Fold:
Amino acid sequence: MVGIVLISHSSSLAAGAAELVGQIAGGARVVPAGGTEDGQLGTSSRLIGEAIAKADQGAGVLLIPDLGSAVLTARSVLAELDADGPAVALADAPFIEGAVAAGVAASIGLDLAAVARAAEEARDARKL
Structure:
């Protein structure tokens, strides 16, 4: 199953979003990577790398960032990944809606490309 890493500037936001997705898409492995190593607002390459390792179940890992600089940190992690490591993709998706859509897609066994597509297509989901 595809694993999901939620990258946020806030550890509380990442953890809360992971909890939400976990309750909606019970089978999905969703790992938060929020805040800095010292508990401040920001992002951490080390925390993201550790989250990728925790989320990896052999079918790849999808990264979903909350804001622009989280994308930059995620891209720096991607640039440093070992070629023998898991397949990792970065989604251009809304944080919560994309995470929920990705979680549902992962929980039914879709592959990494399909899980990423589900997250990105959530951008068009209307609430009203």
Observations:
- The longest helix spans residues 11-24.
